[in-house]
Amino acid sequence: xxxxxxxxxxxxxxxxxxxxxxxxxxxxxxxxxxxxxxxxxxxxxxxxxxxxxxxxxxxxxxxxxxxxxxxxxxxxxxxxxxxxxxxxxxxxxxxxxxxxxxxxxxxxxxxxxxxxxxxxxxxxxxxxxxxxxxxxxxxxxxxxxxxxxxxxxxxxxxxxxxxxxxxxxxxxxxxxxxxxxxxxxxxxxxxxxxx
Length: 195
Known about the structure:
Elements: E1 3-7, E2 27-33, H1 39-46, E3 53-54, E4 57-58, E5 85-89, H2 101-114, E6 123-128, H3 136-156, E7 165-169, E8 189-194
Parallel strand pairs: 2-5, 6-7
Antiparallel strand pairs: 1-2, 3-4, 5-8, 6-8
């Protein structure tokens, strides 16, 4: 199930799952838990939304539809729509880049979404995030390696062409939950559609 969360580029879930709240808001994205993620939900979240126009001029809208995660991201004044994005709460074994069975199942759904007709023309940036516990250089390395592990899995097992995927580590620079450093949403992988 997805929940909408006004955060940085983050996770995607379908309606009915728990809502992840953050006190510091960056941009609207859906958040997905690896246990409740479908390819269709991810496909919808990752599909870029074109701006509404009247006579060629963008219309600024701000709205929220709790039943459709891709409708939750506001189109900001002066933008041309928003890129697709989803954050997955992907689990790894402690202090490692080893994907858990639940993470692999979620990435199988992500691979299916990325191979869909709607997303076939796009490339994706895979961003790894770490919680702020530990030295920043270790967190940066670990987040980069985790993003690379996801890219490797998606290309080798998920059937996604490797040239469509770029791995980036963000370390602990973009926590979703600043009030609880150990919160699982601070250890995540974000998928951003590149147009």
